[in-house]
Structures are given as C-alpha cells and as structure tokens.
Design goal:
This is CRTAC1 family protein. It comes from Roseibium aggregatum. The protein is mostly beta strands and about 550 residues long. Helix content is about 5%, strand content about 35%. Strand 33 and strand 34 form a beta hairpin. The N and C termini lie far apart (about 55 Å).
C-alpha cells in the first residue's frame, strides 16, 4: 500500500491555514513567529566548565539534563573530555535567575575523565534516574542512588563497557524485556592499521538477560557491523509498526564506502541493516546529530540530520511503501539547510552538531535548535559559526532567529539541551562548547532580565507507568490538542549529539487556555483524553482518571 498525500510543505500549509492564526499585539495577523530573548548566565549561575582535550575530543562534548534529586527541577551532568566530567545541581528559584551548585557525583577522578557524552535513563526501574556515560575507553552504567549520588553498576549488571571510542547512544524497551536494550555507537578504531582513515569500529547492541533467580544482566553485546564512525543514533518507530528501528548518523570524514544507516531490530532476533534491496537509499554526509519530530502529525516522523555543510530534513516519501524506508530531503523547501553562518562575513560552510526540536516561543509550532562549531581549525569550514535557532512559522517553513534571540556567540558548540530550568514555562538552553566555557541561556520571553514577559501559553507533561517496567514510558507518544490543531511528541532516549534529557516534556499552546492530552503508551494502548488548563505542570500515570498537578516552590 502506497502512502498518499500532499508534499509536506503543501500539507503543512493546508493544515496550518485551517487553524486560526494568532494576532499580533496590535491586532494585525502575526506574519512571523515571536522571537524569544535569551540571556547568557553561566558564570552568574555558578557553572564554570569546558570540554577539552586532544583530537579524540574534537567530537563529543555532551550534557545530560535530568532530575537527580527528586525535586523535578532539571540538573545537568557535563562531559569534560580530558578534564573531569561535572555534575551541577539546580538551585534556581521559580521564574528567577538560573542558579546551579557544583556537586560530587560519587565517581572517582579516573572514572570522571575521558567522558564524551551522557544520557539519563532509568535502566533498573527503581524510579530513580540513572546515567549512561560514553567514554574514550570503558563506558559506564551509573546507577542513581538518590540525592544526586551514583555508583558504577557495570560489574553488578555484567556489563562490559569495552575499550572503544564511543560517541553515540540510544535505548529502547523491547516487548517482553523488563530492562532496556542499549545501543552504543563507536568512532575510529585507533588500534587498527591505517588509523584513522577507514578504520571505523563496529557498533554494539546490548540486550538484557534475566537469570533463573530473577536477576538482570547485560552479558554480551551483538555487533552491528559494519560500523561507519557513528556520531548519533536513535531508536525510532519510523513506519508506525510498533517496533523500534535504529537510525545511525555517520561521519564520512573517516569511513570508506560508508553511508547513513537504518537497522531493523526485531524482538528476540538478531538485528539487520536495511540495504538497497530493502529500499534504503545510499546517503553519505558528515553526519553529526539526529533530531526527530512528526511535523505534519501523519504518524511518520521527520528527521533533521546535521553535518558539515548543511542540514538534511528527511521525510518518508508519499509514494513509499510503509515497509520500505524511502526518504526525500525537504530541508531547502522549509528553510532549514543552515549551510552557512547567518552572521558575519564568513561564507564558508557551517559545521552542525547537536540538533533538537522544541517550541521555544510557546506558539504551538516546533522550532529547531542546532549547535554549531568548527571541528578544530578546519580551513574549508567557517571559523565563526554561531548556533542556529530556526523558528517554525505558520506557513510551515522555518526562519533563522539566532541573532535576534541573543545566542550568536563566537564559540564552538557541541552537545546541548533545552529545558525549563526555573519552572517559568519558558525553555532555557545549555550548550557545551569545545575548549570554551559552557553556555547557559535563560529564556526571558519577549522582555529583559529585569522585566521578562511571557510568550504564548504552555504545558509541561510528565508520564509514568509505575506498576510495570519502563516506568518513564520510553517509546510512548504524547498528543496535545488545542482547538482543531494537534501536536505530538515521542518519549525517546538518544539522538542529539552525545546529549540526552529526561523529565517534563514541553508543549507550546499559543493563545489556547486549555488542551486535551492523550498518551499512546509503549505497548500501543491509548489513554483517554485528559482536559487540562494551560500554564502548568501535569503528571499522567497510566490508568489514572485524572492528572496530578505539580506546583514548583
């Protein structure tokens, strides 16, 4: 059966034109999305950290954004490269300036070094978030003990962290397995003859095994071969089958004969790569990061792929069979190529890293953030390459707003995360930079630090499955409807660049004062509709008649 429909740009335009366009403050139609104003506050917030090291740390530089002490304010764990990784606990007051306290994490000095990235995940289902650390050397599973303390769980879980150069990660909960399946993406094999050229390491898939006593372990990894120097990966249900596949974005700078990859991961069976005979199209890019969102709410996610040169935005082709992953690039049509710096006189190509879809101005349209920065001193690519903030428009296209938003700093961005650090309903931004201080931007809305002003209305949603495995409901889909318009977002672990986050999921509501929220749980069951008011934090537990409300102190 073929997928029928309009091209995405036309479909988006038709859908959006059927929705009332918000009026500007003077009563005229708003032709452009409102631009939020960000203020850099890392130093005043107490964060002093940078990611550095030799060429092994030209890539990586991630941040995990998650709540490690149970207060529901997002904390951050920052990769340091050759320097120690560092945990910062959120001490911000509601709607006030950002504030973080440096904290010990329980790691030894040796364990905290050579960290390239970090992802939060409750891998032992105790309702306390854990961390997965990607390292140059042994990867670490850190079990959360509460109160922002961690212990290395490799030995107790039988997990072999390996000795590779690990630069990508994703996780999913497969049917019938209580613990998550973990995927690790590796970069150059430095010990191979001819390194680094054409010596990409194989990647690894690690499934949990339950013993006769009920204990769970990760005894053996399955090789995903060939590997093509992965820099980002994501478990995604790309075809609405209910079964996650693994997308891998690869860096063509070092591989020979490589390409972007999609692996089928059927439960209980060995994974296999999609090939040309399956309809998978050969695509070679300097792949850095992945972000996914269902822009036109047709059930099939789009994928933003960052690289050296430009950004791809892939959509499943309208004429493709749903069993055949044929994609077309719509980045140029929607204005998200981001192929050159938007500020300054350097016309050389950009270098994109972390990518993330969020609604930063609360207008109900998805925006795209891209962290930018030269690998080190590559003369063929832009030296001054500010981060992108591409705001979604009611026409279905995107418009660059990085300079107006105040995020166009002269730094080399790597990993990043967007979260509401001070619980004011506005998404803030943290960016890890190569050999430069971390950037921490507070979202001021339309105003200033002295007089911040709101943008649109918003809703923050947390979902939970407390009486079964996968408490955080990884693999679920959250649907938010206002009027005759619906937006959806998946609960995923992976993507970005060496950076992950877990916590409240943010939705902009525009002028709507109420919303209907439904959850499609990981096993495919849908919840009933929850009618909620705007501008609040709601917690939905599976099977509950009503939502719970959380009020930040």
């Amino acid at each position: 059966m073929k997928r029928q429909g309009l091209p995405l740009a036309a479909a988006l335009t038709a859908a959006l034109l059927s929705t009332p366009v918000p009026a500007a403050e003077n009563g005229a139609p708003a032709s452009l999305a409102p631009i939020p104003r960000f203020q850099e506050e890392a130093a005043t917030a107490g964060i002093q950290h940078s990611y550095d090291g030799a060429w092994e740390f030209f890539v990586g530089g991630g941040v995990a954004v998650f709540d490690c002490n149970g207060d529901r304010f997002p904390d951050v764990f920052l990769a340091g490269g050759k320097s120690p990784a560092q945990l910062y606990v959120n001490a911000s007051t509601t709607s006030g300036p950002l504030k973080f306290d440096r904290s010990g994490s329980g790691l030894s000095d040796k364990q905290s070094r050579n960290v390239l990235g970090a992802y939060p995940l409750d891998f032992d289902n105790d309702d306390i978030l854990d961390l997965v650390l990607l390292r140059l050397g042994e990867n670490l599973l850190l079990r959360g003990r509460g109160d922002c303390r961690f212990e290395v769980a490799n030995r107790t879980l039988g997990f072999d962290g390996g000795r590779a150069w690990t630069t990508a990660f994703s996780a999913t909960f497969e049917a019938g397995l209580a613990y998550p399946t973990l995927a690790f993406g590796n970069y150059v094999d430095r010990s191979a003859p001819g390194s680094p050229w054409g010596t990409c390491h194989d990647n690894a898939l690690v499934r949990p095994v339950t013993t006769g006593t009920g204990a769970v372990s990760y005894p053996e990894a399955q090789r995903l071969s060939p590997g093509y120097c992965a820099l980002s990966m994501l478990f995604t249900d790309w075809n609405r089958s209910g079964e996650a596949s693994l997308r891998i974005s690869n860096d063509r700078h070092y591989y020979r004969g490589g390409q972007e990859q999609l692996w089928a991961v059927p439960p209980g069976r060995p994974p296999r790569p999609y090939r040309k005979s399956d309809g998978w199209q050969h695509l070679k890019i300097w792949g850095m990061g992945i972000a996914s969102i269902d822009l036109d709410v047709d059930g099939f996610p789009e994928f933003a792929l960052t690289s050296m040169g430009d950004t791809k935005l892939q959509k499943l082709d309208d004429e493709a069979d749903e069993t055949v992953p044929i994609y077309r690039d719509i980045a140029f049509d929607l204005g998200v190529t981001a192929h050159r710096p938007y500020r300054g006189d350097d016309l050389k190509p950009s270098t994109g890293w972390h990518s993330e879809f969020q609604d930063v101005n609360n207008d109900g349209l998805w925006d795209l953030f891209i962290a930018k920065g030269n690998v080190e001193a590559m003369p063929d690519f832009a030296a001054y390459d500010p981060d992108n903030l591409l705001l979604g428009q009611w026409t279905g296209k995107f418009v660059e707003a990085g300079e107006g938003a105040g995020i166009a700093l002269d730094r080399r961005g790597r990993g990043a995360g967007m979260a509401d650090f001070n619980a004011d309903g506005l998404l803030d931004l943290i960016v890890v930079n190569r050999s430069a201080p971390v950037s921490l931007f507070r979202n001021l809305g339309r105003g200033s630090a002295d007089a911040p002003k709101p943008l649109g209305n918003w809703l923050a949603v947390e979902i939970r499955q407390p009486r079964q495995g996968n408490i955080k409901a990884v693999g679920a889909k959250i649907s938010v409807k206002t009027g005759n318009r619906t937006v959806v977002k998946d609960v995923q672990v992976g993507a970005g660049h060496a950076s992950g986050q877990m916590g409240f999921i943010h939705f902009g509501l525009g002028v709507a004062e109420r919303a209907n929220v439904r959850v499609r749980w990981p096993d495919g069951d849908w919840s009933h509709a929850y009618r909620v008011f705007a501008n609040g934090h709601v917690i939905i537990e599976r099977g509950a008649e009503k939502v719970k409300l959380w009020y930040p102190e």
